[in-house]
């Protein structure tokens, strides 16, 4: 994944998590979603054009569309006041694709850390599906906290490491990444229980 795009995915995931927690109005978050969604899609198009038919390069770039379309969809829906079910069902598609990309990272690309990251995203988008697509409101705050906590550890941190030449991927680091993801999801669950109350509408 393009590392500059990944950095801004961390920003928009953080803001969208705060929307689910009722800390940021949905319309206020719409502009950032549109900016990041457009950035992702434009970046992907440029990468594919520059790939010159290289199948590996196209595959590496293709995951960007999952995020680009998600954020464009969210931005438009928040501005127009659309019902959230469409975003939720699209999130199910994204979650399924993320599992496939995780397998590619593990067994084809030899990048187990990003395999773990893709699995974390699969979980997060599956939660978006449950909350937005199926209307499981009791998971709203848990999903919001999960988005906030995973936004920085699965997007911002690896983006900065990659941009500065500090990213490395080996089985030991992947195990640490997986353990951190599990801990953060547990923290999100604890925070959601502590702040249980009237959950805001995720739309």
Strands, helices and their partners?
Elements: H1 3-20, H2 26-51, H3 55-62, H4 64-80, H5 85-107, H6 112-133, H7 140-163, H8 171-194
Account of the protein in words:
By secondary structure, the chain is mainly α. The protein has a single domain, classed as AmiS/UreI transporter (Serine Threonine Protein Phosphatase 5, Tetratricopeptide repeat, Alpha Horseshoe), CATH 1.25.40. It has eight helices and no strands. The longest helix has 26 residues, at 26-51. The relative contact order is 0.15. Residues 197-203 have low confidence and may be disordered. This is AmiS/UreI family transporter. It is a multi-pass membrane protein.
What structural category arises from helix and sheet content?
Answer: mainly alpha
Number of beta strands = 0
Rg from alpha-carbon coordinates = 16 Å
CATH class: Mainly Alpha
Arithmetic mean pLDDT = 92
Q: What distance separates the N and C termini? A: 28 Å
Helix fraction, binned, reads over 70%
Largest sheet: none
Q: What is the CATH architecture term? A: Alpha Horseshoe
How many independent structural domains?
1
